[in-house]
Amino acid sequence: MAGNDLGSLLGGLLGGGGGQGGSGGAGNILGALIGALGGGAGGGGQTAGGNGANNPLGGLLDMLARSGLADQAQSWIGTGENKPVSADQIKEALPDGALQQAAEQAGVSPEQAADQIARVLPQAVDRLTPQGQVPSGSLEDIIKAQAL
Fold this sequence. Notes:
mainly alpha; 7 helices
């Protein structure tokens, strides 16, 4: 499935492991989450970065911003320090079905998935937005460009 490919790309971007769930664990959970959110995450107009209605990264950031995490999401996009986010905040911000599906795909509980996402999402967004804005294009293209 595309989520596995995306997980591999994200795992490479994050330096391989990153998570405690084995090789590429961090990338796998983010790939699973983005796959679970599918096109639905990008369907809502503007994002925290002002761009990205075409890619799931922009949709995810928009969802987080609408859930009260705009400051955190903007700090990950910006070039300054990344503000942390907690597993509880991730659970509140994401649709239950998306978190459950991502957890199942990654082979962890929803609580573990939320914890892993909270730990790796700030770093992943930071790496994917080096110019301080959400790039346009497909998420795969963005990841491949950053991994070079």
